[in-house]
Each structure stands twice: as C-alpha cells, then as structure tokens.
Amino acid sequence: MTPNRRELIAGGAALAAAPAFAAAPGFVSKRPPVAERRFVSKAVEAEITRISKLIADPELRWMFGNCYPNTLDTTVLSLGEVNGKADAFVITGDIPCLWLRDSAAQLRPYLHLAKRDPALGRLFRGLIGRQARSILIDPYANAFMQDPTARTNLSWALKDDTDMKPGVAERKWEIDSLCYAIRLAHDYWRETGDTTPFDAEWKASARAIVKTFREQQRKEGPGPYRFRRSAPEPTETLYRGTGLPTRPNGMIHSGFRPSDDACLYGQFVPANLFAMTTLRELAALSNAVGEAALAQDATALAAEVEAALKQFGTMTLPSGKRVWAYEVDGYGNTVFMDDANVPSLSGLAYLRCVDAADPLWQRTLAACWSKDNPWYFEGKALTGIGGPHTGPGQVWPMSIITRALTSTDPVLLRNSLSMIRGSHGHTGFIHEGVDIDDPTKFTRDWFAWANGLFGELIVHVAATRPELLRETFA
Fold it and tell me: Is the omega angle on the peptide bond into residue 33 within 30 degrees of 0, that is, cis?
C-alpha cells in the first residue's frame, strides 16, 4: 500500500540535535546544527533570544526555540534566482513539495522582521515570485514540484484523473490556495512598502487568480476543472470529477478544503469569506502598482461574493441560533461543522475576514467549540477541533492556536498555552492530529506550518499579554 499525506506520521524525518538552547536549561534544542540549517536570519535569531527571555516556563520556552525557526531551519529547500529575480522553494516539511497555502503561512511569522533583514526580505520576494510562476503553470493546482518541468513524484497523485501538467505535484482545486498567495503578496507590500516583486509575471498571475475565481462561480457551467482519484476515502476525490452540483449565486465553488479533503457542498463559506477579503487586498496592491483595471475587477468580484455570502452563507442551528454555515450548495442544503485547517469558521477573525467582536462570528465560534460541531473533541489531554483528515478522537493543536490568536480572554489564553505545551509528545514540536487522551500518539512529526503558527502565537502573546508568559504551567 503506497503512503499518502495522511499516513506521514510520527517516526518520519528526524531533525538533528544542536547544542542545548541556552534560554531553556534542562532541555536540548531540537534545531539542526547551525551548519545544516537551510536559511539563517539574524533578525529571526535576535527575535528568538528576545522572546525567550520573556518566557518563564522552560518547556514552553524550549518549544518556542524549536518551532519558531523551523521553516527557515528545515524547509527553505532553495533560494536562488530565476531570470535575475529572487526565487525560493519552501516545502511543507515531511512532503518535499511546495503548497501555496502552507508556504505562505510558513513565512508569515517572520513578516514583521522583513524590513530589518535584507536576506529575509529576499526570501519573501523569492517565494512571491515562485508562487506567481506556479500559479501561471496551473491556477487550479494546490502543490508544486521544485523543478517546474518535472512530473509529480507523489505516490498518491500519480494516477489522478485530471489534467496534470509538468511542475504540478497535486491538483486539488482549493480557493484558499490562491487567497494565501494574494495575502502573502499584500502583507509583504504593506509591511515593507516594497513593490519590486510585482512585475509583469506577478500581474499575470494575479489576473489568472481573478479569472479562475470567476470560472468557479460556475455561472455558465462547471468550468474546465476535473479531478478524480481512486482512494479508500471519499474525501480524496470529487463526484464525477466536479463535485456535487451547486446553484450559481455569486459564491465561488471549491473542490477541496484547506485540509485537502473534498468539500461536501462546493460553496465553501470560510474560503469564500477569505476570497472576498483577499480580493480587496489584491485591489489595493494592484492600484499601488498601476493595475487599475485589475483592481476594479477584483473589487467587483469581491462585492459579488459578499452579496452571495450575506444571502446564502448562513444557517440556523437546531438551537435556533443563526451562524455562518461551513458549506452550502445554493439549493438550500447546508452543513455545519468546523475543521482545524485555516480558513475555518474559527479562523475567520485571524484571517481578518470578520471583526473579532462581530456577534454572528461569536455565535459561530461558540458553536464550533461545542458538540454542535462533529469534529470537536474533549479528552484527558486536549480539547479542540480536528477534522476528517485525521479522523475522530484527534485534535489538531492548530485549532487551539488559531482560537488563541484572536482571543483576549486571559483564562482561555492560559489554558491554550497549557494544552499546547502538553501536546508535543516529548518531541518539542507541534504536530498535525494528536490523540485527545495520549499526546504521544500523533500524525506528522515535521509540520512546519503548525510549528510556525505556534511561534506566531507566542510572539503575539509577548506583544499583547506578556504577563501570561511569566507564568509556569503544570
């Protein structure tokens, strides 16, 4: 039986140990030796030292020292040039391919440092360029090969019934993949003021994003995308290659969720909210680089999606509470659930799609973190949200981190830090799914997105509630 993404579990790639991290006595650093680190940023190293001094709990401090630089230490597979422009290839961790979503999210925790470190800025520019070129290969693909002329070597994707192009590693159509590419570009520009990455190639990729979103509004049929896979899990394939029917209403149809699992109903609400938000960010950036027509198109599309979300994107729970739906089909069918992968309903405020105080989102968040959500679990060690990707009884620490990133409740933040601290299964890293009763049972020992997200949380707490980092946890 060939392995697939959900089977890359504990016991995979081991990280070489480095000398003990000085700020965490009694704990040995799990970072690779300096000579073996893929990318070193002076600004990031200084940030590790600064934040570590604020963390009283030695185990939490040790985890931060391991996790925060994990993307740079281990996943920057290359940083070079293509046609005289920076090029960076950033893998997810235990899968040696670039996911648009993951790679953008992996660099995000370092964004506030990009202006301080020219090499780090070049890494951001390199990834923006690589993502643009990847989107121009195929805007429907979610993952790409390092060699843009190579065929996929992912065992689970070799026989996919879809239009696989050279350079594509996996071709699961996910709205959020393109949203994350926009978010990376927009936030880099906002943070640095640098417009050099946004050349003709990037502008072409941005136009391809808007074109693809419009195709998947499915106003004139399902569009060009088809995907089928022979797999034991129904979440790995799409019904008849296009998914269950949706009624056109202005929302964008997605084949798959950010978990890489198939949507039940293709009008996936969290991703549509993310698209609405990032299209407006694309408009702002496009105006800044002289692309007024693109800005107008993105703005108009965002307005269409927003109107459809207001009319079709909510539902009433059996309790009578009105909440955001997870997925709808435009025919009146809805599903309520939440998945740990972002965009999620729980992550809407983190993604700046809603105001954290918005009553509709607060009701939705409360429902997600309750038995109203079939993927919410409570155990001896962890309470949180998982998803179909790893199955029942598995909480993703990512869900706990995402919730904490938009909370101002000190009790919730304290409990979140405590649970995350207890979730690593003696490894010092954040994992994908973790058994709710036994943290030594987990999937993916090398998952850079989750590691970086934890680091982002600690930096956020240091800036907003530093007193919590002065506490120790049992």
Answer: no
Q: At what angle do helices 175-192 and 100-107 cross, to 10 degrees?
A: 30
SS3 assignment, position 137: helix
How far is it, in rounded angstroms, from Cα 330 to Cα 180? Answer: 25
Q: How far apart are CA 382 and CA 393, in angstroms?
A: 10
Longest dimension (CA), the chain: 63
Residue 273 has which token pair? 């909210």
Q: Which residue has the tokens 């890494």?
A: 123
Give the pLDDT confidence of 351-408 residue by residue, as tens digits.
999 999 999 999 999 999 999 999 999 999 999 999 999 999 999 999 999 999 999 9
What is the assigned CATH class of domain 35-470? mainly alpha
Helix axis angle, 200-215 to 292-312, nearest 10°:
30
- Per-residue tokens: 365: 């968040």
Q: Which amino acid is at 227?
A: F
Q: Tell me, what's the pLDDT at 305? A: 98
- Sequence ranges of the domains in the chain: 35-470
- Per residue in 273-320, pLDDT (tens digit) is 999 999 999 999 999 999 999 999 999 999 999 999 999 999 999 999
Whole-model pTM: value is: 0.94
What's the gap between Cα 379 and its chain centre?
Answer: 25
Residue in the block written with tokens 């019934």: 161
Cβ atoms within 10 A of the Cβ of 153, count?
11
- Asked if 359 and 277 touch (Cβ cutoff 8 Å), the reply is no
Q: Which two tokens stand for residue 338?
A: 């939440």
What end-to-end distance do the CA atoms of the chain give, in Å? 42
- Yes or no: say if 79 and 86 are a contact pair by the CB < 8 Å rule: yes
Cβ(399)–Cβ(420) under 8 Å? no
Distance CA 397, CA 445 (A): 13
Handedness of CA 282, 285, 290, 295 (dihedral sign): positive
Give me the pLDDT at residue 136, please.
Answer: 98
Nearest Cα to Cα of residue 114 among 193, 208, 5, 215: 193
The per-residue pLDDT of the chain, averaged, comes to 94
Measure Cα distances from 464 to 16, 351, 405 in Å.
Answer: 33, 18, 10
Site of tokens 């009008």: 267
* Rounded Cα gap, residues 261 and 229, in angstroms: 12
> Which conformational region is residue 408 in: left (phi greater than 0), alpha (psi within -120 to 50 degrees), or beta?
alpha
> Residue 110 corresponds to which tokens in the numbers above?
């370092």
Q: How far apart are CA 91 and CA 89, in angstroms?
A: 7
> C-alpha 349: how far from its chain's center?
14
Report CA-CA distances (Å) from 132 to 68, 100, 216, 285, 364.
26, 10, 20, 15, 34
